[in-house]
Amino acid sequence: MATFHKVSIQEVIKETADAVSLLFDIPGNLKSKFAFHSGQYLTLKKTINGKEVRRAYSICSSPSDSYLKVAIKAVENGTFSTYATKELKSGNFIEISEPEGKFILEPKPNKNYIAFAAGSGITPILSMIKDVLGSETTSTFTLIYGNKTVADTIFKGELDDLKEANPNRFNLHYICSREQIEDSLFGRIDKAHTNFYINNYKDTSFDAAYLCGPEAMINEVSATLIERGFTDENIHFELFTASITEDNVGQIKEGETEVTVLLDDEETTFTMSQTDNILAAALRNDLDAPYSCQGGVCSSCMCKVTEGKAVMTKNSILTDSEIEEGLTLACQAYPTTSKIVIDFDDV
Predict the structure, then answer these.
(1) Fewer CB within 10 Å, N or C, the chain?
(2) Residues 127 and 214 in one domain
(3) Do 61 and 96 have their domain in common?
(4) pLDDT confidence bin for 316, thresholds 50/70/90
(5) Signal peptide position in this chain (predicted)?
């Protein structure tokens, strides 16, 4: 269950024309609560134009850093991202959750890691790179990082510095789709680019791959890595957005469901339309259910169906075995039975 704490913003750093990073001032009594694994995220909560808005942003600092930082890139019509990149200032207060997320890397000795990131997908990957380079002197990290142009490349200066400081353990490759860079490939990260770099490191046996970016890139790179001998178990990814599962959408029918929600050791029962998702219905019934992205790409609203059934229209987080255990994402879950029991506590 997400727990929020009000903290001040120590610094707002302009990373690119449309991206900033926020450095938080974490009080000493809260530092232990914000210990994290590289790859995890924070949920930021702010009232904007009279409405509470929550969004998940990956942590870009390393677990060993003395500071906690996230990066935010403005997206078109993005309420929170536009506010954050244009309005937030040093000294402002904001509520942030304790770290969450299943897209993590726990560095081990004598390992070779490879990552493919696009745009702001670099944020959790940067945390992983710094964690590996800083904590495991016998491990290496290879990054393939795609952007439109050099000017759009978030954290380029920091990545270049890491390369200079770790020339034998950090392999750094940029790809731009709208600008040709000397000694770099051109275009978007795809099968050809993936094969090129795997061939380039044919003498290196990679132990794990980490992917973060658009769904099309994730799918194409994952499939290519499988063809090159990787297994599902050593390919880890996090999506910007998840696509709709049309088969599940077809199971959503007109009707009503009696929902019982167990949240913070209290039971609440209400009736909802089966064409509505469980999270939205819970919030309308004044339940403080956990949530963040509302797009099926984080795990903040994960809960368990203990009675009845529900289908998810989007899901990039839960495995087939977790779904079989009854886990679901409330923001994407639509009830398909007349009664359903949802447990937010037992996850």
Answers:
(1) N
(2) yes
(3) yes
(4) confident
(5) none
